[in-house]
Fold this protein.
Amino acid sequence: MFGILNKFNHKAEIRESKDEILVGEIVRAMARQGGTAVTFLANNDYQRVKFRIVGDPILSYVYVTLDRKTGTGIVGAAVFGSKATLTVSAETKNYIADPDDLVAMYRTDLANLFRMPVLGGIRLNHELNSIFATTTLVIDIDNYVLKGEPGVQALMAHLQHTIQELRERLRPFKKA
Amino acid sequence: MATAIPPLPPGDAPAFFVRGPAGQIGPISGQALLQQILQGLLPDTSTIWYQGMPDWVPAREHPGFGPLIAQHRPPAGDPHAAARADDDEKDRIFGKLVKASWEYYNEHVAASHIDEVLVGAIITCTLDNGFSLIDLTSDGGRHYLRFENMQNASRIVVQVQHLTSGLVDAKVLGQRASVVIGYGERVADFQRVWQALKAEYKSGYLQSPEPGTITVDADMASGYVYVQVDMYWNIEDYVKPDYAIDYARLTTHIGATVHALGKYLRGRLG
């Protein structure tokens, strides 16, 4: 009868849910800043949420990916703490339809194909109608979860700062 | 007194009739007429007429159209001008087709992911009511959420399944979703958990619970007993086409459901 319970991992301790708690707080923090969650991809130790940014002159979407490579087990937590990689990617769309622009963009796409992301740096990537700016950071989940409103505020400030950096990198590429 | 020539019709409106060397053509749009003149397919001495004009006038003498020809006419002696004008016109038509395609595409995308917008809204308003998200599983079609109130350890589980994910279904039936909401509390008395499990055994015969049917389940590992109810929601009651979310309404509906389930659970377990 109760198929819904079978869908969960029944994590024994709250330690094992910290990444989900953080994702929940990210969804709420983005909603407070005008970001509507439109796509979820979530499984063990990996969550990716796509947000539609309404009313922003530069950004169309922001993607937040939380990848807890350290795992959730007792040993992993003891060795690595609550570290996780947080990847934030911002997308601006130009809806390019001019064949001359498409040819130019194709060359840029090829050039970007072999670029590797740098931790903490911002990587730009053209994909025809979209241009992405992406940064990956290692964060300590404990700095943000189960801290009440101060934790939420710290998370909001961190996301705001990161998205603003990405927005500025994309600004020159946005067509009027 | 001569009648004034009315303003030009919108550029893409097929409003112009043209008399040229090959006879009369039309109606064609102002844009098409301009391109034909610029490409040399029609002389600028061809006479034109549209609704409201008192008489036929040579295109280059029309007070609105003549300056357009002069403005767009390439410099004399440029042998590639006609080819460039033709290239620009084809690019413009192609761009228009692509732009229209994006509008259709975005409509399909919005129809297919509106359930995930609802999931995000459920997360936001449940967190705003003191719960933390502790489980999230999604394959894009079915979404499972579990929340815990860290103060009193009560839990809320939510399952959302989009029933009309295609644009056609959504336009005909509306944006419908199967929504299962459950409420759980930790029960220390094992005997009471066992009673709940017996109820779960009976409700195992409910292959497809009808709306409003409350069923019971227990998770022996964590000592939680849950009750749940199956419902059908119209997602557009909460998520508007412009992605605006009615958080107040969603909070009220989830709150009322959890309240009812909590009453049932406590009544059931004594």
